[in-house]
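Standup, Tuesday
Yesterday: got the pipeline producing structure tokens again.
Today: sanity-check two examples.
Blockers: none.

Example 1:
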Amino acid sequence: MPRVPCRKFTLADIMVLVAASAAGLALARSVLETQNSPWYFAYPMGAGSPIVLGLTVGLLGIRLRKPRPAARRLFRQPGAAASLVALASVAVWSVFLGIRAGSGNPDRGLEGFSYVGASAGPAVLGAWILLGITQTGRREPGWLDRSGLALGCGWIVLMVVVLLR
């Protein structure tokens, strides 16, 4: 099988990542305002989850742009799989936080958002274990899959921080 050249890093990719980082930082600011924890727990959890979430959304959006492999091959790449399962986990978590915020004080929902890493980290870890066991995970050479791997590791680190609290 011939080796496919990796996609180049373009100005549009930079713009998407900057916008995703800005959205993550804005959400982190509002989450940090609701924290009652000591700073050494509040900053990694309260600021880490929204920033990694923003970058995950941005990177998955870049990953879905053409040229890209077929969806079947795309989500067998560890970086794309990490982004997809982390986003699905955060979506489920956000539904519960919305219900919690709707039952009273809206700050309760934002305060709980710092624990998103507790659900996305195991989801990423599970996806990688599944790709490893089935031996279907194929890394793509290039910056996109490596960036997804780095974000997946970020979700796992956030999981460890939440568990150590």
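Example 2:
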Amino acid sequence: MITNRFIFLILSLIFSFSINAKEMVIQTTASYKLETFIYSNNSTYSIYKGEGSLTNNLGDYRHIRCMGPIEKKSNFLKLDHICEYINQNNEKMWHRVNREGNQGADAGVGKGVIFDATGKYC
């Protein structure tokens, strides 16, 4: 009996808090430049530089710059990019994106880490 009351109390507390969730719609635009060396075995080494903007329906907007190397050997891909985001209040965030592995099987699989920030992103 005490256990049932305890469970009821916990569930009542959990569901008594109102949830304030908003839908976020993000729009992005970007352009990039890729400078590439092609080796005799068709492996490549490229430097990626991209720039763009991000806006959302909550009133935020950001300028985005990314750069880093891309290495391709047969089906193997390795990239290590850093992106800088600057919002409308000049607050910044830096994000590192790493991906390494089989180009076909691991499409889109990688790691992203925010490693430095200012303002509200801290």
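Quick observation on example 2: The mean pLDDT is 83. The chain has one domain: 20-121.
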